[in-house]
Sequence to fold (91 residues):
Amino acid sequence: MDQIIKGFNDSQQEVTVKPLRLESNEYYAKLGTALSSSKGPDVAVAHVERISPFVKAQQIMPVDELASKVGFDLKQISDSNIKSVSYDGKP
Fold:
């Protein structure tokens, strides 16, 4: 991950990725608190089994329009994976 982040940060000057390493329970507690106070990160990772509370709190947005905007075809991801992270038919 450090090499990927360094490579991305070195490749451009507009966006800086800062890694944050936390234990799982601490991570989800801090993420939920940050999102509730509108101070969450632009991008975060959530395990499939942890998505529901974020969806219910409207803290996760569908990615289909964003993917389309940047030219990423979600069909590159298997149907089962897309289905596992979809809510009301939206990935």
In short: The chain has a mean pLDDT of 90. Residues 24-36 form the longest helix (13 residues). Residues 4 and 89 are 31 Å apart (CA to CA). The two ends are 25 Å apart (CA to CA).
